[in-house]
Amino acid sequence: MARRYRVGRLEQEIQKEVDDILLKRVRDPRVQGITITGVDVTGDLQQATIYFSILSDKASDVEKTEEGLKKATGLIRKELGARLSIYKTPEIEFKQDASVREGDKIDRLINKLKQQDK
User: Fold this and answer.
1) H or E segment and range at residue 23
2) Mean pLDDT by 10 residues, the chain (118 residues)
3) Which of 38, 61, 68, 73 could pair with 56 as two cysteines, CB 3.0-4.6 Å apart?
4) Whole-angstrom Cα distance, residue 98 to residue 114?
5) Exposed, middle or buried by CB within 10 Å (0-12, 13-18, 19+), for 118?
6) In CATH, what number is assigned to the domain containing residue 42?
C-alpha cells in the first residue's frame, strides 16, 4: 500500500516537472504546445512512461513531436535528476496518449447522433 502511494506521488511529481522542463528548458519547436497527460512508473521506479497529447492529429505532426521528444530525452532526464529527490532517475519513454483522440471520436459520434435525432 505505502509503496503504491510512493509510486503515485512520484508519477505526479514527474508529470509536473516534465511539463515545466518542456515549457522552460527545451527550445525545440517540435515539442512546443504539447500537453503531458499522465505518467506511469514501474513498481521498482526504474522506468517511466510519459504520455503526451498534441492538438494536431496529423501523422506528420505526431512524428515530428516524437522525434523532438526523443532528442530532448537526455536533457529532460538530467533535469529530472536534479529536481527530484530520488536515488536513481528512471529511464523515460514518451508515448502519445490515445485517450484524447478516442474522446474526440466519441464526441463526434454523439454529436452526429444528436443531429440525426433533430
Assistant:
1) helix 2-24
2) 73 94 91 91 92 82 91 94 89 88 84 83
3) 61
4) 25
5) exposed
6) 3.30.300.20
